[in-house]
Amino acid sequence: MRRPTLAATAAVTVIALAVLTGCDGGSDGGSVDRSAPSAGSATQTALDPADFDPAAAVARASKEPYAVSIRATTEPLILTVTARQNFNTEVPTGRQERKVGGTTREVVITADGQYHRIDGPGGPWRKTPIPMPSIAKEFDLTGYAPALLSLGPAARKGMETRDGVPVFHLSGHLDLEHLAKVSALARDDVESSGATGIDLDQWIDVQGRTRYAEKRMVVDGAPIVLTMAFGDYGPPETVDAPTVTTV
Hints:
Blueprint: H1 12-20, E1 26-27, E2 30-31, E3 42-44, H2 54-59, E4 66-75, E5 79-87, E6 94-100, E7 103-110, E8 113-117, E9 126-128, H3 132-136, H4 144-149, E10 156-162, E11 165-175, H5 176-182, H6 184-192, E12 197-204, E13 210-219, E14 222-234
Antiparallel strand pairs: 1-2, 3-10, 4-5, 4-14, 5-6, 6-7, 7-8, 8-9, 10-11, 11-12, 12-13, 13-14
Helix pairs in contact: 5-6
């Protein structure tokens, strides 16, 4: 029997968003106020791949808390997500925004819960009982690059330049066994959707940080693609809970 998740409460395409990593939102003072990065196009760079060891970059990536801006889109469901979120923290707090058609849902994740509203600045905030790990860590790709590197030389696709930033392209299929090495949550969320693994492309910079990623999986026979772009890295930011007017 499949384990209930946030994804199980929505249509299959929304299920995949939650499983693959979905987010969005706003704070009590408004929507995300930092510009999220664009997906950007990739071109082969003249840099010698020998000058960039992706394993070394991942190994030296900072373990300190940080904040990052995120932009994500899903296919075939036209859903756009923007977020400003803290990672390498006990709870990946942040402010998010999800847009599907003409509907916008704002989300605030704090250390003690998740808050959302769908009626704009004048609408009420509600605190939801959805389990925090499956929501707060949707965009946290910690552990995925080492998993790709463990697949061997075939996963190393070489240097590229995206939006003027030199990045190393990693690519491969991560089955449930590999996902378990990322985290129990990574495996459980994919397995509970009925999928047997994911195809992942991940682009990391010289500091070992993820700049772009694309996850693909099949849920109930339907292919789902999630693309993500990360940028504007900085120190962790304070995220305050909005005032709840309706429970």
